[in-house]
Amino acid sequence: MSVRLKKCSHEDLKILKEISIETFNDTFKDQNSPENMKAYLESAFQSNQLEKELSNISSQFFFIYFNDEVAGYLKVNTNEAQSEKMGDESLEIERIYIKNTFQKHGLGKHLFNKAVEIALDCNLKKIWLGVWEKNKNAIAFYERMGFVQTGAHSFYMGDEEQIDFIMTKTLV
């Protein structure tokens, strides 16, 4: 088993868009209406939106490769790129997306460890994320990684308001 990470660049936009749509759709299509899924996918993962995110110096994307195949990616944010005001000493894990065929291989933990490495390199004190309250697998994973729920916020899937748990891990 060969696992490696690669920082994404603008040249990776097409693959980033494809994997974003595939993983988000596979994870959430069964719990949401087709209309709301379509609306969200078309806004969140359109090329110009992802291009804007890739251009933000306070955001970083990393592909994870499993046996030389792109299996998923990590997106982290600091400073003003964070989706909530959590302070200058925080790093947000906005996305850990793993393709279905590559789940249960420990790849999420590799991406999580990369986020911790970035946070420590930047002398940040905590890592946080938002996770849908109904995404039990992701919540269980983050709890195993040492996160605790510290709040909640609204997330809109099309016209439907959903609740994301805010989960935080303090770094030593």
Descriptive account of the structure:
The chain has helices at 13-28, 34-44, 47-55, 107-121, 136-144, and strands spanning 3-7, 59-66, 69-77, 90-98, 126-132, 148-157, 160-170. With 172 residues, it is an alpha+beta fold. A seven-stranded mixed sheet has the order 1-2-3-4-5-7-6, sandwiched between helices. The model has no long low-confidence stretch (mean pLDDT 95).
Cα shape: globular
Return the structural class. Answer: alpha+beta
Oligomer: single chain
Rg, alpha carbons: 15 Å
Instruction: Please estimate the helix content.
Output: 25-40%
Query: Which runs of at least 5 residues are low in confidence (pLDDT < 50)?
Result: none
- How large a portion of the residues is in β-strands, by DSSP E? 25-35%
Give, in order, the helices and strands: EHHHEEEHEHEE
CATH class type of the domain at 3-122: Alpha Beta
> CATH superfamily name of the domain at 3-122?
Gcn5-related N-acetyltransferase (GNAT)
- Write down the CATH topology of the domain at 3-122: Aminopeptidase
Order of strands in the sheet with most strands? 1-2-3-4-5-7-6
- The overall strand count is 7
Mean pLDDT metric? 95
**What's the main sheet like?**
7 strands, mixed
- Measured between the Cα atoms of the first and last residue, the distance is 31 Å
CATH architectural name of the domain at 3-122: 3-Layer(aba) Sandwich
Total helix count?
A: 5
